[in-house]
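User: Show me a protein chain along with its predicted structure.
Assistant: Here is one chain, sequence first, then structure tokens.
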Amino acid sequence: MKKLRRIMIITITSLVAVGLLNACGDHQSKSSHPVVKMVKAQVQPTATSWQHSSENKPYPDMALKNHNWLDVSIKDQRVYIKNAAGKTLYTMFCSTGDDNGTPRGAFHIQAERGEHFYNPSSKEGANYWTSFLDHGIYLFHSVPVDKAGHYLMKDAHELGKVANSHGCVRLSVPDAKWVNQNVPTGTKVVIH
């Protein structure tokens, strides 16, 4: 058993070394060994992600002249801020609606936005809302709040993990505030 384990460790170490050499361009000969690609692990949301910016770096400049846009992935439960060439500049955790809740297609940030709303029929509201469709119906906004303005912990803890909105795109509190205050009217939004 120990001998088998040692052989496995040597084999794995060799494959990683060959892959790193190939990835760095230091290995000139054609090798029949498989190349091990280094993949950047995607950061996973935690129970407190709703309280913080999704990334530990500055948000991108969203001036319309930069042609940055919002790419909402229902499958990934992420909002990717991309530049005109399609490069991801920033990634936010989100919670969208399920299969029929959030509309798919190309939209634009609309003029309607505000700091707080509450809907008595659904018994929830949110902070830092920004409209992208139907002038105040479909929004980017914070995780939901109750009538007293307290964040709903069950929904907050599912940010980036579960599609559980009524159709809007829920974001962490800082991310929603940033979108509300920094993403100009007319910015392209693509939801898929």
